[in-house]
Specification:
single chain; about 350 residues; alpha+beta; D-amino Acid Aminotransferase, Chain A, domain 1; 8-stranded antiparallel sheet; about 35% helix
Length: about 350
């Protein structure tokens, strides 16, 4: 189970074969790695499932292997178009399953050798592959690199967001309590027998396809991530791709993603956000995996108007991305105008 979607196993994976299962999307949300927050955003689960399924079918049409099998409506697997034509925005996605071994933590470090000893050649690569087309004002890339590293002529990072001449691809940890960015050598070691160059190539193709689709919908695709499984020599895109939780999009300069809610919490609950940051830093210093146990504050619920505005943004954005009226929602321009007033 994750913080925003449930995970069902119908047939478990084995060392030699993929299994079968499903993601069941909920209306829960998470920010700052907290996990399930106090509120739910209506129709968010259907929005993410619909957009994710659309992107998986886009990838499959382009020849990119994935773990996607279809959406599930009334217990039956079907294409997204068939589900939407029947008037159902799905909340369940059928997927192939791979092995996810335990990642032991002891003496302040994670044992990836143990992970891969159990993984064989059928496993979820324990990495997130991050791609960036734009460096936002608060992007961590500004702290880790200089503009010249990306072919930019600035001596220092400017105050405003910067578009990159070529997408930047980075690797971060997947199963550690706190995500951390990795050198290419570190990523290669953590990936196991999966090749990091091949993982980067897949990420760049996913980024290209999502960026082109977003452009057609009037959206700017700023950044995102993928996860991958490795099965008998083939890399397949896993988890969910190109949604407003996994990626950052913008419309007319306004974020259309989970980032809206993230920034709202930073403005209205700064003490909690600060406590989260302090707990993460302390956990790193003390070699503790569970940073939340060190946090002395919890998030407060959102106002009803904020939840409604977030719901409309998810739904209007999905309608725009797909180019069809899946949800009863205002136009994207109207939804964006409303969140700008929060």
């Amino acid at each position: 189970m994750t913080s925003v979607k449930n995970f069902r196993v119908d047939e478990p994976a084995t060392a030699d074969a993929l299994g079968r299962g499903a993601f069941v999307f909920t209306d829960d949300y998470s920010v700052f790695d907290w996990g399930k927050m106090p509120d739910r955003i209506p129709d968010k689960g259907a929005s993410l499932c619909t957009m994710g399924a659309f992107n998986f079918e886009l990838l499959e049409d382009a020849g990119v292997p994935t773990h996607y099998r279809g959406v599930v409506v009334d217990g039956e697997e079907q294409s997204l178009d068939d589900a939407l034509d029947a008037g159902a925005a799905p909340t369940e996605m059928a997927i192939d399953l791979t092995q996810v071994p335990d990642l032991p933590f002891a003496d302040g470090s994670y044992d990836y050798d143990a992970y891969h000893a159990d993984a064989g050649e059928n496993y979820l690569v324990p990495l997130e592959i991050v791609f960036r087309n734009r460096v936002g004002v608060g992007s961590s890339l500004r702290k880790r690199t200089d503009p010249a590293d990306h072919g930019l002529e600035f001596e220092t990072w400017p105050d405003e967001a910067v578009d990159l001449p070529d997408a930047v691809v980075e690797f971060s940890t997947k199963y550690e309590e706190q995500d951390r960015y990795l050198s290419r050598a570190e990523a290669d070691a953590i990936a196991g027998v999966a090749d990091v160059e091949a993982l980067e190539s897949v990420a760049r193709e996913v980024n290209r396809l999502v960026t082109e689709r977003a452009d057609d919908a009037g959206l700017v695709h700023q950044d995102g991530k993928i996860e991958c499984l490795y099965y008998q020599g083939e890399i397949r895109v896993a988890d969910v791709v190109g949604t407003f939780d996994e990626n950052r999009f913008a419309y007319d300069g306004q974020q259309v993603s989970k980032e809206v809610i993230r920034q709202y919490h930073k403005r209205t609950q700064p003490e909690w956000v600060e406590a989260v940051g302090e707990a993460k830093e302390r956990a790193t210093a003390e070699g503790v995996a569970d940073w939340k146990s060190l946090c002395d504050r919890s998030p407060e619920p959102l106002d009803a108007g904020v939840i409604e505005a977030a719901r409309d943004l998810y739904c209007a954005g999905t309608n725009a991305y797909l180019g069809r009226g899946v949800f009863d929602a205002p136009t994207l321009a109207a939804a964006v105008e409303r969140v700008q007033s929060l």
